[in-house]
Write a structure and sequence with these properties.
The chain is of the alpha+beta class and about 90 residues long. The protein has one domain. It contains four helices and five strands, in the order H-E-E-E-E-E-H-H-H. Strands 3-4-5 form a three-stranded antiparallel beta sheet. Strands 1-2 form a two-stranded antiparallel ribbon. The radius of gyration is 12 Å and the shape is globular. The termini are close together. The relative contact order is 0.21.
Amino acid sequence: MMVVMSDVEDVWARILTYAGQEFRTVTGLPFTYEVPGNYLRVSRTNRNLSRANFEKAIELMPAEGPGELRGRQGASYTWAILMDSRIRADGW
């Protein structure tokens, strides 16, 4: 899938919009995240995931599961956020 920069901007805007709301990993674990800068911090781990990480992961969407996001930071959280209907909208 070819992702143009405007798509990335739209997805990042939705990520910002839904910060603080509950998401779930593929195994059903609930988590939230905050976006204090050009990265987000996941509540379950206090892990930081960069915007660049999401930009690269978007190119792999739709993915069947986090295992398809080889080399991405926090694949289970990245996948859960990007595959959530609030974030993916009608993108993939």
